[in-house]
Amino acid sequence: MTQTSRAVRIHAHGGPEQLVVDTVEVGEPGPGEVRIRHEAVGLNFIDVYQRTGLYQNPLPLTLGMEGAGVIEAVGPGVMHLKAGDRAAYAAGMPGSYSDLRVMPAMNVCQLPDAIDFETGAAMMLKGLTAQYLLRRCRPVEGLEPGDFVLFHAAAGGVGLIACQWAKALGLRLIGTAGSDEKCALAEAHGAEFTINYRTENFAERVKDITAGQGVKVVYDSVGKDTWDGSLDCLRPFGLMVSFGNASGPVPPFAPGILGPKGSIYVTRQTLFTHINSRERTQAMANDLFQVVGSGQVQIRIDQRFALTDARLAHESLEARKTTGCTVLLP
Ligand SMILES: NC(=O)c1ccc[n+]([C@@H]2O[C@H](COP(=O)([O-])OP(=O)(O)OC[C@H]3O[C@@H](n4cnc5c(N)ncnc54)[C@H](OP(=O)(O)O)[C@@H]3O)[C@@H](O)[C@H]2O)c1
């Protein structure tokens, strides 16, 4: 049986004006697939990269990599879900800006009853990212309670989750943000120190805060604007985790600069390597469900838009007007 769904798509790369609401056909799930009806959809900065063409996918493209809803049908071989289940996902294949979609079941998890759909839609991509950053990206000298780390864009979607989770792990998180209000928000969510990187030199402040030592890990999703300063925040053998490009991609650099800065390590990470198996996706999701369920990490949804207003949501996100998470409601 074929149904129809609204889908927010792009037919060409460009600005938020490229987002249009189309009607698409949705069929039955094939082997290893499910059909899910969305109750809420998560907005992520990666949706902007896909809209602009920084990250390339075939067109026309329905955006969106995060959502929550009810499973309508499962294809052959899907054992962990059944029709009627509440579910949520972060997935590498875009398409969540829709009422209904068919997608691979691998990254779709049952959503615990205690977690509502909006929270489920807001937290999977951003929460699993905080999970792998804090729990799976290890500096060579280990990461222990009491260690300093630096987290850029700390008042954003991933940022506020990371502030709380880092505190629960006993890490001393220094957060940067683009306004004093955002800095206060990050502190209220567990950042021990914050730096307004629009008005202060964050590398100098980090050296002051750490008594000249530097941090063990820098988590940098801002990219171009923070790259150089971030390398100067690390202590010897520290780890630079580049995981985004909100200000633009990191320009090419010479590995030779890493030695004099303290034999530091650099890695570029993506969630989709970490969630490339059902078992690991579920294990990471269980870890996230545990910290959310226990209240150690609260998922803060500061913006809600109708699905058909996705354009306005993109404009807010890119203008640095949002804090915490944003959901689109079908
Ligand atoms: N690699 C991965 O696995 C992975 C997974 C998820 C997310 N990410 C990345 O993590 C970052 C956070 O994602 P999110 O969805 O939670 O977004 P977000 O943090 O809610 O929004 C991005 C934030 O980046 C900051 N920013 C700094 N310079 C900017 C600029 N020139 N333009 C726009 N924003 C700028 C802004 O905060 P301030 O105003 O405070 O500076 C803005 O609010 C993004 O870069 C995203 O691509 C990577």
UniProtKB/TrEMBL annotation:
Classification via SMART domains: PKS_ER
Record flagged with keyword Oxidoreductase: yes
Pfam family, any one: ADH_zinc_N
Keyword list, A-Z: NADP, Oxidoreductase
Signal sequence extent: none
InterPro entries: ADH-like_C (IPR013149), ADH-like_N (IPR013154), ER (IPR020843), GroES-like_sf (IPR011032), NAD(P)-bd_dom_sf (IPR036291), QOR-like (IPR047618), Quin_OxRdtase/zeta-crystal_CS (IPR002364)
Domain Enoyl reductase (ER), residue spans: 14-328
Name of protein: Quinone oxidoreductase
Natural source organism: Hydrogenophaga electricum
Encoding gene (name): qor-1
